[in-house]
Specification:
The complex is a heterodimer of chains A (295) and B (379). With 295 residues, chain A is an alpha/beta fold. Chain A contains 15 helices and 9 strands. Chain A is elongated and about 80 Å long. Chain A starts with 10 loop residues before the first helix and ends with a helix. Chain B folds into 3 domains: 6-87; 163-202, no CATH class; 204-377, von Willebrand factor, type A domain (Rossmann fold). In chain B, 43% of the residues lie in helices and 13% in strands. In chain B, the strands form 2 sheets. In chain B, strands 6-5-4-7-8-9 form a 6-stranded mixed β-sheet. Chain B has a 3-stranded antiparallel β-sheet with strand order 1-3-2. The longest helix of chain B has 16 residues, at 217-232. At the A-B interface, α2, α5, α9 and β9 of A face α2, α3, β1, α8 and α12 of B.
Amino acid sequence: MAERPDVPSSVPELTGALADVGYLADRGLATSLYLGLRLGRPVLLEGEVGVGKTEVAKAMAVVLGRRLIRLQCYEGIDSSQALYEWDYARQMLQIRAMSERRLDDDAAVDQLFGPEFLLERPLLDAVRAGDGAVLLVDEVDRADDEFEAFLLELLSDFQITIPEIGTVAAERPPFVVLTSNRTRELHDALKRRCLYHWVGYPSAEREVEIVLVREPGVTEVLARKVVAAVNRLRTLELAKPPGVAETIDWVRSLDVLGAQDLDEEVAADTIGAVVKERDDLDLVSGDLARITSGA
Amino acid sequence: MPDAPAAAVSLVPTLVGFARRLRAAGVPLGTGDVLTYCAAAEPLDPTDLVDLYWGGRATLVTTHEQVPVYDRVFRAYYLGQAEEEDEAVPFSLQAKEDARAELQLPESQPGDERDEREVRLGLVASDVATLKGKSFAACTPDELVALRRIMRTVRLTPPRRRSRRRRASRDGRSPDPRRTVRASMRTLGEPTELWWRRRRTRLRPLVLVLDVSGSMTDYSRSLLQFAYSARRAATRVEVFCFGTRLTRITRELEHRRPDEALSRAAEAVVDWDGGTRIGESLAAFVRDWGRRGTSRGAIVVICSDGLDRGDPAVLDKSLERLGRLCHRIVWLNPHMTGGSAFRPSTLGMMVAAPHVDLLLSGHDLASLEEFAARLPDLG
């Protein structure tokens, strides 16, 4: 496979490039992404919510200098929302105009199904863009089996056939990232197509770094305290354990309020940034003093 | 599929050897996966152990649960550390379809599910009327086998819900512009007929949470047989077992016979003197599975006698949350007799009763049939 000049040529180089754009990837994640790039395989990321799965694709798009094309999956998503759709309103008007001007030759009819009446949806867009794009298929577990099967076909060939126009194929495939929150098990066939990586919670040390990269304004002392508190929260049996996104939100909230330190009082005021479930609040609120005590 | 590159050829036997060991340890791997693994060694530095580790993990592992197996085999193969024997049982036992000879049962006819179910229930009734009312716990092994065989033919049909997916129809709720425009081409753009789309319906997923402690095992086994038949109806079925702890056995059921999977699960989750912890097990289900969406829109079937050794407040709270995370809760309590006049006698059942949408006994085939018959109407 011919390489584009801007593709990082080793795992450390990719890690460095990602860090430059504010994403701190660990060795395993960086290796998976690097292999995905080199082998032309999609990368499937699974993990808890709020650990930065979606951010990976955004960071990769910046690193590679490519356009990010995002497809958010949901139940019942079908080809007219993922691939393409004809612009019916315009086609209708055109047909009317044609019949008034008595244009009923073949060329005029062909024009009706020409590119100007085609609405491109993310997957067609990505196939056309080829390796000029990073395609993010977000929360693929929310789509249903039928869509998964369709995606499998697309991910193997990177070509789409539109009956009225012809086949559109990507000369070099886009870099594809799929994310899943594991609300259901994905089909093995889809997993087989992909490189798999489980994104877990980062170590406390790494999480402090992430916070400082994302919120450069805050002091390290505050970042450490918040990360320590969040890690204590994760050991409680919460219904929704806070992810890295919540840690960053919390730090940001504290920063906006001008708090220099995390104590019981200010934590009680801002706990809504991290704990978002009533039962969890009951569990946490009696224990805030211990949770916020020191780094 | 990328070819194995020349630079790494000398390594290929080593890499393939590793993949074979991994396969022997129960990770399903095709030749294509092994090729990808070898191809991955080329852009990386295979003499770097960390690269070797992550290259394999990205290409050979497809679920989070396989990671510990991968780690173990990696350590044994590349680092020469001894394997612990206890876990090294391959899960390659294929579920064998038992011959179903003795009872004359007709092959299923594709058609209206509701009709089919009624026909089948009728047949069951005529063939084994005597066995039907006998409690599973009182059956001899032979009788149980016969009952199982009948159960295999009763189909569980969960209620349907409207899906977000639409299909073309003459009388739907929302217009179908694609078809309408297509049709109007024939009449020079005059839309003479409006086409519609209507929502499709889908079967709701089914989640079984089975008590496998002590006296409950017989009943749970029977229910599991039911779950098997529901899987064939192309429904999503998830199965969990609990005793003192909770474990998910959906995956194992794909590889093993139901009985074997259940016995293994029972070994894993039952401390013989620990008693049943329904509350904590359900709390674990809600925390680890329910909130991620496993039970969303589903019919959750709990099979237990309600003898809870844990804190009733935990049971109350978990059922309340489960009620918000699923569509309906059905509780099968085999130790319950007296039909609809039943009054809960155990503390667990008293706590649970207000949260449960349907309470049945499920101690014999007749009551399981009642369950199967009422399931489609829980919508």
